Amino acid sequence: MAMDLDDLVFHPWSVQGPRTVPTFVGGSGSYLTDATGRRFLDFSSQLVFANLGHQHPRIVSAIKEQADRLCTLAPGYASDIRGEAARLIVEVAPEGLGHVLFTTGGTEAIEHAVRMARLHNGRPKVLAAYRSYHGSTTTSIHLTGDPRRWASDTGAAGVVHFFGPFLYRSAFGASTPEEECERALAHLEQVILLEGPSTISALVLEPVTGSSGVIVPPAGYLRGVRDVCSRHGIVFIADEVLVGFGRTGEWFGVDHDGVAPDLLVFAKGVNSGYVPLGGVLVGDSIYETFTNRPYPAGMTYSGHPLACAAAVGAIGAMNDEGIVASAARLGNVIIGPGLTKLAENHPCIGDVRGVGGLWTLELVRDRQTKEPLVPVGATGAANAPMAAFAKACLGRGLLPLVLGNRIHVAPPLNVTDSDAATGLAILDEALAEADAFLA
Ligand code: PLP
């Protein structure tokens, strides 16, 4: 199993030291292969980025062709492949987002979006939701509204958090999606008025919350946020790093409500993560700000030609293979009904929620009280039920994504029906391990 070479790697988000884990050496479609030749079903598309699975031939050949022509080029130079990637991205983006700033990932793109907003309207504060993740550098981790922020929180200048809609654990005591939507928007308006609208530069929001809970807002919420931002001159930044490029069964999360943000941040699905790429789609009025003065930021590898080539291959494949429609079907026909059925068999499942190819099972001790099966931030013995579940999955050849008391289910959007059924059957068996911890 473990190769000693793995001990030389300092692993992000992890306790360091020797580990017993498979060493991956290959992949194909929804499967990864380890050094012993064993195959594992990737039921979370890694960190929800390998939307077209592994070794998609169209992306691989786009990268190879670009590598043969020109491996690298600095950001300021005009590049055919960068232009083509921008064209394809703008083509599928919401109206009015006509230019692309490329980055090497999502965190960096969030940093740029916030900087652009502040330079655009000269205001200091930024609003972000509790239960959110926006990245792990200083600004982006402070915007983040979940326990990952706590370890590095030194008090963020200018960041104000608010509650978004989340019916399962409503902060507003609502009992219907309509009530939750109305109350969440009224709360947001209050926060803005009490903070002082003219002091707020931007509002950053995941249109569907990803790793902090897979929370799908009620219909009309995103439209309400758009309206409130427009009324107060606040830049609406949609963080589509995890949900953009088809994950929720629309090209972008904001498409569910038919609204366009002022800035749209993307990464992951733009090229299935084959070469690091992210970016900011820039709305016309913000673009105008930087036509008379320089935009003062950028990185050496922004818009790397190999990453842009991977995006051209990936978006081409998504268009030709109807991946966005496949994602919607995956949710409506396979994963949604499959997980709902699991909830009938497993008392530890408190809530099943999601959309398209992004779902979660929230595990609880008690369905009435909704007490989480493991406490927030649990490690060691306190996390035993989730660890037992994860071990059971791995033993059966499935790679799960377990975050806190939740099991996130997000297979490649082109997963076959039979592979999806295999994954659901393994979850069914492994969930028995978590049930066993109920008193
Ligand atoms: N924003 C969201 C919604 C994310 O899910 C992530 C990563 O998971 C990020 C930002 C940060 O992106 P990256 O890890 O590419 O820096």
TrEMBL record:
- Would the keyword Oxidoreductase turn up in this protein's UniProt record? no
Q: Gene3D superfamilies per the record? A: Aspartate Aminotransferase, domain 1 (3.90.1150.10), Type I PLP-dependent aspartate aminotransferase-like (Major domain) (3.40.640.10)
State the source organism's domain of life: Bacteria
| Protein family | Belongs to the class-III pyridoxal-phosphate-dependent aminotransferase family.
> Does the entry feature the keyword Transferase, yes or no?
yes
InterPro entries of this UniProt entry?
Answer: Aminotrans_3 (IPR005814), Aminotrans_3_PPA_site (IPR049704), PyrdxlP-dep_Trfase (IPR015424), PyrdxlP-dep_Trfase_major (IPR015421), PyrdxlP-dep_Trfase_small (IPR015422)
Gene Ontology MF, one: pyridoxal phosphate binding
Q: Which organism is it from?
A: Promicromonospora soli
What is the name attached to this protein's record? Aspartate aminotransferase family protein
Q: What is the lineage of its organism?
A: Bacteria, Bacillati, Actinomycetota, Actinomycetes, Micrococcales
* Key words, A-Z: Aminotransferase, Pyridoxal phosphate, Transferase
- A Pfam family annotated for this chain is Aminotran_3
Listed GO cellular component terms?
A: cytosol
